[in-house]
Each structure stands twice: as structure tokens, then as C-alpha cells.
């Protein structure tokens, strides 16, 4: 296990500034996930830690040692790539043993480590096969095993599940989580899939355009997003955003009026704002409720699309107050159909409030559980 610290780390490719003043403290034993949209710089940041790219400015410390100029083999890093990167002419055994053999490890020790790791990853029956004889999930396990046998200080995963089908992704996600629990190692994982981030991470780093937008535990980011970017990225379906104006500024509750709609209360501290200031109200699809009085317009909203998924139902409606269709998520099934009108309510404890620049006001009350919605057709 090792602590990884990044201090004002920047990376430029010519005039293109890819990674911008990144400050991170990854504690020993953490499972940290870098998440963000394509092109946000998450894979570049991982490659900087691995030593596969040079740091333009700033410092990288692993176990207290500055590693900016250390070559990759001397950093104590074990990396698992998206493409597996296995040697096609070698058996599973030889692929896993190769790194140790290059380091001139005693043959007996190599054999013991390879077989121990193979047993842990359920690769024992496959040791004599070559990569072309393996499934995608098996190849990924070999790539992970190859990293484990070297006993690195830090494990790096670069979108390791993106080439797998849906069922294998779930299975491998569980195996990686169990691996972290068993080894207690420091792991850094890159993905664009926020479900992987939420289920695997002890700490999530949300990146956008090379900058760190927020760092925190999965539930901290879900309950306390720092801005509209994080709020919209964490959670599936994403948070709904509606334009509004501040009507009354309170220490614990703020009264806002959704444009051309009703006044609603939001459990947020908007100190620093003024009456009449534009703002954005955010609410997650699973927190919208059906009620007697509509929060947006008199008589309720008309549902344009209803998606029955069996275990849950997604409903959509359009409104001028939102650039995208507003999504309502309910558990179970319903007889509601597209074209029906329903009144919706925004519970104040589950609303988020953002200023005109997208920065979140501090929430006064946080719902710790997702309420179950009872739908009356």
C-alpha cells in the first residue's frame, strides 16, 4: 500500500493544456476512481502517475518520494490496460510470470506467486492456454493477475471493463471490488461510467476539461454536488435542472419561483444571493413525487414518453424551464401512459439550488434515503 500525492500537476501537449493544476491526496488503501466525459483528461492523469507521460509542471509523490523523473518500472506501479495487452504467443502462465522473470526473480518464487494469484482469480485451469483461447473476462483476469504477482505499491486501471459485455462488466466489477477488499491495496481506476464509479470507489475524482471539479465519497457527491456539472454527471438518469428566480433568502430555507411556475421552498442556504437573482433548481428523477399541486404549472404537466422497464418506470415531459426533458423515475410499474397529465411536487429536502454560474448553495437538509413513490393512476 502507498500514498499518492499530486501537487499542482500540469500536462501540456504543445499549446494544448490537458491537465490543469491538479491537487490530489490519495491515501494508502484508497480505491480512487477518476471519472468524467471523454476528453476530460482522466486517462492522461493516470498515465502521468504511471510514468507513461512526462509531467510538464508540479510534483508527483509516491510513498513520500518525488517520482517525476523515475522510469515506470521504478515507481512500484502495476497497470491494467483497456486492451488487456497480453502477449499472444505466450500461455497464461508465461504472461503472468514474464514481469517477475525480467526482474530475475528466482524460478521457484515465480512459480509460487503465479499459482497463488491464479488460484485467487480462478485461473488455475487456464494456465496452459493462450490468450486467443480465452473469453474477454478471462483475459482481463489474466491482465489483473499479471499486475498482482509483481506486488506493486499502487494498482492503476485504465477503463478495464469497457471491452466487455454488460453481464461480464457486472461480474468483473464485483471481482475487482473483492480484490481490493482482499489486498487492501491503493487502487486508481479510470472510467467514463459513473455506475462503476459509484459502486467501486471509496473516493471519486470528477474531472472536466483537465480540472478537478470535486473529490469525495460516492454518496457525498450524490448528496452534495459542488456544481451543476457534478450534479448532472453523478446519478442515472441525471439530475433535472430548471431555471428559477430567488424570491426570499433564508438561513436554512430559500424560497424560489420556477419561471412562469409556482413558488417552492428549497432547503438550502443562499446567503450571498439577493431577491430576484436568477438561479437553477436541481432535483433527481427518483425524488420527484406526484401530488395535488403542480410545482411548475397549473393543472399539471403532460407526460410525453413513458418507459416501462419492469423494475422501474421512467416518465418524461417537456417544459420551457428546462433545456432537456424532465425525467421522473418511479419504482415498479404503472398504468400511466404518454399523454396523461399529472401534478408533480419537488420535496424541499431533496431539491438542490445553484447560482447563475452553476455553483451550489449549501444544503441545509439532506435526504439520506431515496423515498419510494406511490403512483395513483
From TrEMBL:
<dbReference type="Pfam" id="PF17912">
    <property type="entry name" value="OB_MalK"/>
</dbReference>
<dbReference type="InterPro" id="IPR047641">
    <property type="entry name" value="ABC_transpr_MalK/UgpC-like"/>
</dbReference>
<keyword id="KW-0813">Transport</keyword>
<dbReference type="InterPro" id="IPR040582">
    <property type="entry name" value="OB_MalK-like"/>
</dbReference>
<keyword id="KW-0067">ATP-binding</keyword>
<dbReference type="GO" id="GO:0005524">
    <property type="term" value="F:ATP binding"/>
</dbReference>
<dbReference type="InterPro" id="IPR017871">
    <property type="entry name" value="ABC_transporter-like_CS"/>
</dbReference>
<keyword id="KW-0997">Cell inner membrane</keyword>
<keyword id="KW-1003">Cell membrane</keyword>
<keyword id="KW-0762">Sugar transport</keyword>
<dbReference type="InterPro" id="IPR027417">
    <property type="entry name" value="P-loop_NTPase"/>
</dbReference>
<dbReference type="GO" id="GO:0015423">
    <property type="term" value="F:ABC-type maltose transporter activity"/>
</dbReference>
<dbReference type="InterPro" id="IPR008995">
    <property type="entry name" value="Mo/tungstate-bd_C_term_dom"/>
</dbReference>
<dbReference type="InterPro" id="IPR015855">
    <property type="entry name" value="ABC_transpr_MalK-like"/>
</dbReference>
<dbReference type="GO" id="GO:0016887">
    <property type="term" value="F:ATP hydrolysis activity"/>
</dbReference>
<dbReference type="InterPro" id="IPR003439">
    <property type="entry name" value="ABC_transporter-like_ATP-bd"/>
</dbReference>
<keyword id="KW-0547">Nucleotide-binding</keyword>
<dbReference type="GO" id="GO:1990060">
    <property type="term" value="C:maltose transport complex"/>
</dbReference>
<dbReference type="GO" id="GO:0055052">
    <property type="term" value="C:ATP-binding cassette (ABC) transporter complex, substrate-binding subunit-containing"/>
</dbReference>
<dbReference type="Pfam" id="PF00005">
    <property type="entry name" value="ABC_tran"/>
</dbReference>
<protein>
    <submittedName>
        <fullName>ABC transporter</fullName>
    </submittedName>
</protein>
<keyword id="KW-0472">Membrane</keyword>
<dbReference type="InterPro" id="IPR012340">
    <property type="entry name" value="NA-bd_OB-fold"/>
</dbReference>
<feature type="domain" description="ABC transporter">
    <location>
        <begin position="4"/>
        <end position="234"/>
    </location>
</feature>
<dbReference type="InterPro" id="IPR003593">
    <property type="entry name" value="AAA+_ATPase"/>
</dbReference>
Amino acid at each position: 500500500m502507498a500514498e499518492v500525492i499530486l501537487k499542482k500537476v500540469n500536462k501540456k501537449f504543445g499549446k494544448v493544456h490537458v491537465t490543469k493544476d491538479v491537487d490530489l491526496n490519495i491515501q494508502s488503501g484508497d480505491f480512487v476512481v477518476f471519472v468524467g466525459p471523454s476528453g476530460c483528461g482522466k486517462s492522461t492523469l493516470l498515465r502521468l502517475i504511471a510514468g507513461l507521460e512526462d509531467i510538464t509542471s508540479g510534483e508527483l509523490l509516491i510513498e513520500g518520494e518525488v517520482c517525476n523523473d523515475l522510469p515506470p518500472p521504478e515507481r512500484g506501479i502495476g497497470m491494467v490496460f483497456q486492451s488487456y495487452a497480453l502477449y499472444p504467443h505466450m500461455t497464461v502462465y508465461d504472461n503472468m510470470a514474464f514481469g517477475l522473470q525480467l526482474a530475475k526473480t528466482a524460478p521457484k518464487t515465480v512459480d509460487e506467486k503465479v499459482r497463488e494469484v491464479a488460484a485467487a482469480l480462478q485461473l488455475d485451469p487456464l494456465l496452459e492456454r493462450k490468450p486467443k483461447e480465452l473469453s474477454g473476462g478471462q483475459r482481463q483476469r489474466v491482465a489483473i493477475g499479471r499486475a498482482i504477482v509483481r506486488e506493486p505499491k499502487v494498482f492503476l486501471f485504465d477503463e478495464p471493463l469497457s471491452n466487455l459485455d454488460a453481464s461480464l462488466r457486472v461480474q468483473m466489477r464485483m471481482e475487482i471490488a473483492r480484490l481490493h477488499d482482499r489486498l487492501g491495496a491503493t487502487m486508481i481506476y479510470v472510467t467514463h461510467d459513473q455506475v462503476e464509479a459509484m459502486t467501486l470507489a471509496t473516493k471519486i475524482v470528477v474531472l472536466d476539461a483537465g480540472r478537478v471539479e470535486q473529490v469525495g465519497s460516492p454518496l457525498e457527491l450524490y448528496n452534495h454536488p459542488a456544481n451543476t456539472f457534478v450534479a448532472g454527471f453523478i446519478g442515472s438518469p441525471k439530475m433535472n435542472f430548471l431555471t428559477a428566480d430567488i424570491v426570499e433568502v433564508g438561513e436554512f430555507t430559500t424560497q424560489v419561483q420556477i419561471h412562469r411556475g409556482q413558488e417552492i421552498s428549497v432547503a438550502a442556504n443562499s446567503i450571498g444571493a439577493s431577491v430576484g437573482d436568477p438561479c437553477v433548481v436541481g432535483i433527481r428523477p427518483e425524488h420527484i413525487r406526484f401530488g395535488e399541486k403542480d410545482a411548475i404549472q397549473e393543472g399539471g404537466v403532460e407526460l410525453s414518453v413513458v418507459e416501462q422497464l419492469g423494475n422501474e418506470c421512467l416518465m418524461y415531459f417537456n417544459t420551457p424551464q428546462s433545456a432537456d426533458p424532465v425525467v421522473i423515475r418511479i419504482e415498479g410499474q404503472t398504468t400511466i401512459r404518454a399523454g396523461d397529465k399529472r401534478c408533480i411536487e419537488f420535496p424541499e429536502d431533496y431539491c438542490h439550488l445553484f447560482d447563475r454560474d452553476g455553483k451550489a448553495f449549501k444544503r441545509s437538509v439532506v435526504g439520506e434515503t431515496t423515498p419510494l413513490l406511490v403512483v395513483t393512476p
